[in-house]
Amino acid sequence: MKNITEQQIMSLAPNAAAASNGKKISNSGGFVKLYKSADDTFFMGECKGSGKNPYITSADYVDPAKPVFRCSCPSRQFPCKHSLGLMYEMMKDKTFEPCEIPEDIVRKRGKIAAKNAPEKSPEELTPEEAAKLAKKKASAAKTAKKAKSAKLEKQLEGLELCEKAVKELVSAGLGTMGGTSLSTYQNLSKQLGDYYLVGPQRLVNKLIFEISVSQVSNAEAHYDKAIDILEKLYTLIKKSRDYINKKLESDDVSNDDTVLYEELGGAWKITELEAIGKCEKNARMAQLSFWVDYDESRKEYTDTGVWLDLNTAQVYLTKNYRPLKSLKYLKADDTVFGAMNVPSMVIYPGEGNVRVRWEAAEFSELTEDDFAKIRNAAVKSINADAKEIKNLLKNAIQSPILFKLVEFKQIGKIGESFVLKQSGGDTLTLLDCPELVETTVGKLSILPNASLLENGVMLCGFWYDAASRAICAMPMAIVPNDEDTILRLLY
User: pTM score > 0.90 for this model?
Assistant: First the structure.
């Protein structure tokens, strides 16, 4: 029987409720019959439903990193609760009767294999096939280039419109952005969508939201956020305009390795990132922290994971965006306590903790060697890395938080502040970042064992504190030197 863990089930479930319902089906004896193929790649069950006939649900593990779940129920969730229930039956090592793989499953496997099969190499093509393929590609490239050029020119027009509005706002002052004038910026937001400027549109919406809230609550924090958004918007306009002009002047409109493409509102496809070489094969990833944010201005949840690439020692982020209107049908990410073995992972352009993404992965437990790699990836001298951290945090286009693993000798208090001290004598003030809602510094006082504050590695979220004009760090997780565990302070 294929080895299934509850962690794997939770990682595949669209949400916690679906996993819970699947578990209930299994515990209540919902499956009347269970089958599996001789090669342990196909599992099927007949599950009692609300109707007269049972639902037929199956799990196809022909590709272990990317199992396919199918069910005859009408649910729009994938995997549905019946598929998750089937996995719980597998986890419990229930008795599955032997069966042949159904013909329709064999056909579907064939279609998937054909779709994913690489194109013929030039040597395998006949002269006629090669000529036909070259003509087809040339025609498609010409059409795509023309469309991209037109889109870039349209974006330039929109950036001019947006810059004019920003300059007028800066000249008049943010305090004027209220009352009847607020509708002017709401109209601007709508117009930016017509100019393919989804990124600037989101920033304008955030600006409108922060100003609206600040006028009701008189809270300076929202006004300060509005200033930061305005700075990012202005920087984005300037850099994007230069970038687009250079693209058009060089007559090269192909996608390239720049964060501006996504910041303007472009959405990278996995194939596009692979085409520009932003790909890593056979990655092994360890999640260090996880949290969920809600953006009221976008009406959207974001599941964020901080991961260490155990092969390269790079700290990456995963982002899963879930708009409120589609929440029921989108899979939510969750905390992962083991390692993910990723056959193919794409890496988004940018600096610092860039985003990564994969479509398939296999879960496994973290090993002693994995924990050694986590500890070895830690920064031994904060002062030596201070310049790099400052430069990344000063970039308005990048995230206002930079995540790094940091070695520490001791964590204690100086006055009311927690301070991290390294073996070389470097110190770092630990302070919660306002960008992340949940507090973690206070949790350092209630750890189950005081020894956790000595000789270990901490995942820190570095950020700039305008009040003290200093770089601070939010503690996210602790990895003790004498114990193979990740103690999460934010999860």
Answer: no
